[in-house]
Amino acid sequence: MVKVDQEKCIGCGACLAICPDMFELKDGKSVVKNQDANCDVKQAIESCPTNAISS
User: N or C, which end of the chain is more exposed by having fewer CB within 10 Å?
Assistant: First the structure.
């Protein structure tokens, strides 16, 4: 299960750029909209500058 720590997230959109089918921005923060999206989750996790995404 992919999670985004809302306290760490700065809403930069890196995860959204890599996995637009999985992530979306709500209230300036990234949230997971589809756990089953077919995308490179590992790359999205590694791209997060604040390490807010985990699986």
Answer: N
